[in-house]
Amino acid sequence: MRSKKACGEIAWMPDQRLPELTRSVSGGVALEDPVRPSTDATWDDDSLLVRKRIDELCGIVIQRLAIPFSIPTFDLKLRGLAAGRAHLRHAHLSFNPVFLRENRSHFLLHTVAHEVAHLVAYAVWGPRIKPHGREWKLVMSLFGLKGRATHVYDVSGIKSRRKRHVYQCACTPEILLGPIRHARFQRGVQYICRRCNTPIQHVTGSHN
After folding, report:
1. 42 shares its domain with 128
2. Quick one: 112 and 178 in the same domain?
3. The model's pTM
4. For residue 190, with 0-12 CB atoms within 10 Å meaning exposed, 13-18 middle and 19 or more buried, which class applies?
5. With 80 as the cut, is the pLDDT of residue 88 above it?
6. pLDDT tens-place string over residues 101-142
7. Is residue 119 domain-shared with residue 198, that is, in the same domain?
């Protein structure tokens, strides 16, 4: 569920909102049970189910946090080993149709929420937060879920085009570099993100 994120018409909120959101999540507020989608859906229903799940999650955000929040667009065109990806600056989500088809109920419940939470965290706290840090975890708690950075789906049937190494910076949790740039990084070459102007760091032990 590693993601490369983006935001469009979403209002940025100041850091002072963190204590307020902490109270709203952990201060005894009773949250409704998250919807657990049926496993009886067909392949043709997947797009509609994802749309309904996104709308549901955005409704929770708008109601509980009282912030202006644009409902994101999405596609089911993601390939490779990633289950989902959030493009923050465009308020757009990409999902892997193979993992969705093979793990429909869990995918709709957890993976879709995972990526929407990235957009919400970016909207509330801005780009200089850790991709799966406390802000993102607070949003996942708002959805009634525990956050984890990676998915647990079976990838044995997925063919990866080539080995790519996962890096991240202050604004993007997944930057994929090929073996040549990765080797340069290992020799001491430093890459800087053009958006947040911070050095990208290799996510130890990870590749895509």
Report:
1. yes
2. no
3. 0.63
4. exposed
5. yes
6. 999 999 999 999 999 999 999 999 998 899 899 999 999 999
7. no
**Cα-Cα-Cα-Cα dihedral sign, residues 129, 74, 162, 107:** positive
Cα–Cα distance for residue pair 107/101, rounded to 1 Å: 9
Side-chain half-sphere CA neighbours of 71 within 13 A: 12
* 2: confidence class by pLDDT, cuts 50, 70, 90: very low
- Tokens matching residue 116: 């929407």
1 lies in a domain? no
Domain that holds residue 50: 17-142
Residue 6, strand partner residues? 88
Distance between CA atoms of residues 26 and 85, nearest Å:
27
User: Do residues 74 and 93 lie in contact, with contact meaning Cβ atoms separated by under 8 Å?
Assistant: yes
Task: Examine the residue annotation and report whether 20 is marked as an active-site residue of this protein.
Answer: no
Rg (CA), the chain: 17
The larger pLDDT score, comparing residue 182 to residue 42, is at 182
One domain, residues 34 and 70? yes
Residue with tokens 């102007």: 197
105 domain residue, yes or no: yes
Could you tell me if 96 and 155 are in contact, meaning their C-beta atoms sit under 8 angstroms apart? no
Structural domain contains residue 100: yes
Q: What is the pLDDT of residue 12?
A: 26
Report if residue 7 sits inside a domain: no
**Active-site choice (20, 102, 115, 174):** 115
